[in-house]
Amino acid sequence: MLEARNLTLHHGGSQILHGIDIDARPGRVTCVMGNNGVGKTSLLSLLAGRHPRSGGTIRLDGRELGRVTAQQMARMGVGYVPQGRAIFPMLTVRENMETGFACLPRNQRSIPDEIFDSFPVLAEMAHRRGGDLSGGQQQQLAIARALITRPRVLLLDEPTEGIQPNIIAQIGRVVATLRERGDMAIVLVEQYFDFAWDLGDDFLVLERGRAVAHGSKADLRREDLHARLAGHAAA
């Protein structure tokens, strides 16, 4: 679904990403892992069209993409849930979700029932302002907003950050259901190791903007991956 090769990214005079390869395939979760400041969020922002890459290629459904904007990527089926949620605090929950309509044709501008099935609290609080929700509820809202765009590729940046355990479990169930549906590719940036390992099919570990480990779950040992990440944190 989404293939990227030799991605590089610069910010000012600094190079943030160095030759990153990543694949996101339907029915699979690709986990991008590493400690703070290694380039995980920058990679997702690049894939979402929010930052222009310095080099490398991106293909979506086999079609090579040139310079594209975030709006163009959304229209092509790439949904993005940013770190920090980025909901609109003064809009209601329903209005926040309806902002996802912007990249859809008019005949698709509705909130599917499965959104409220996955996140019942959003139905209960549809007329509350987004800023009045708890952090966990805002995270559910951010994911729902992305799903309303009918993405074929879903980019999730640290969905468990600052979230209570029961909502982490709920988000995990939703991601697992989306994966099992088989028609969506999911890229998950995550530092919570157990959450990532339970959901992940493929793994990419970054350190200082470079890939230092990658492979499928079948090719990796849980203990080795955990030790590598723990070692980087200690260093």
Automatic annotation (TrEMBL):
SMART domains: AAA. Residues 2-233 form the ABC transporter domain. InterPro entries: AAA+_ATPase, ABC_transporter-like_ATP-bd, ABC_transptr_urea_ATP-bd_UrtE, BCAA_Transport_ATP-bd_LivF, P-loop_NTPase. CDD domains: ABC_TM1139_LivF_branched (cd03224). One of its GO terms (molecular function) is ATP hydrolysis activity. Belongs to the ABC transporter superfamily. This is Amino acid/amide ABC transporter ATP-binding protein 2, HAAT family.
